[in-house]
């Protein structure tokens, strides 16, 4: 299978964001094995290497991860704009367009919460 469905790709990203949201931390999960997470949507590449931080880097990483959240949020805004430009008529199945829009909005909401919580944590 050469081309992946946009909904499949978005749900993969959604899963990662949901896991991070439940864990209450940035893009770092020590149970995950090291390796890059690469998501390609058109000309957009999001590449993030997961690794285990040392305790003294915790605060620094927290700020870094909130940066990743902001970056990912901006990428999602681009995806949302591209979807709006395409419109449902450009899709083979209009419901996959609707689903994609919902998925992007859901992920943006999750990221907003994460960005807000990491901002309040770094203030203390």
Q: Would you write up a description of this structure?
A:
- There is one protein chain.
- 62% of the residues lie in helices and 11% in strands.
- A two-stranded antiparallel ribbon has the order 1-2.
- Strand 1 and strand 2 (44-50) form a beta hairpin.
- It has one domain (6-118).
- With 124 residues, the chain is mainly α.
Keywords:
124 residues; mainly alpha; two-stranded antiparallel ribbon; 2 strands; 62% helix; 11% strand; elongated
Integer count of domains? 1
Q: What structural category arises from helix and sheet content?
A: mainly alpha
Strand order of the largest sheet: 1-2
Q: Ends: how far apart?
A: 49 Å
The chain-level mean pLDDT equals 74
The sequence of SSEs as H and E is HEEHH
Radius of gyration computed on alpha carbons: 16 Å
- Residue share in helices? 55-70%
List the uncertain runs. 26-51
Q: What is the strand tally?
A: 2
The DSSP helix count reads 3
Give the amount of beta strand, in percent: 5-15%
What's the story with the biggest beta sheet?
2 strands, antiparallel
Tell me, what's the shape? Answer: elongated
Write the layout of secondary structure elements.
Blueprint: H1 6-23, E1 35-41, E2 44-50, H2 58-86, H3 94-123
Antiparallel strand pairs: 1-2
Helix pairs in contact: 1-3, 2-3
Give a quick summary of the entry.
By secondary structure, the protein is mainly α. The chain has one domain.
């Amino acid at each position: 299978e050469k081309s992946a469905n946009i909904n499949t790709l978005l749900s993969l990203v959604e899963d990662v964001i949901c896991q991070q949201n439940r864990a209450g931390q940035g893009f770092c999960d020590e149970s995950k094995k090291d390796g890059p997470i690469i998501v390609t949507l058109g000309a957009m590449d999001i590449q993030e290497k997961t690794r285990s931080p040392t305790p003294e880097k915790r605060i620094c990483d927290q700020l870094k991860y909130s940066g990743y959240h902001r970056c990912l949020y901006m990428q999602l805004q681009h995806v949302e704009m591209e979807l709006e430009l395409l419109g449902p008529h450009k899709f083979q199945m209009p419901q996959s367009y609707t689903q994609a829009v919902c998925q992007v909005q859901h992920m943006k909401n999750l990221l907003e919460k994460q960005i807000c919580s990491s901002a309040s944590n770094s203030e203390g």
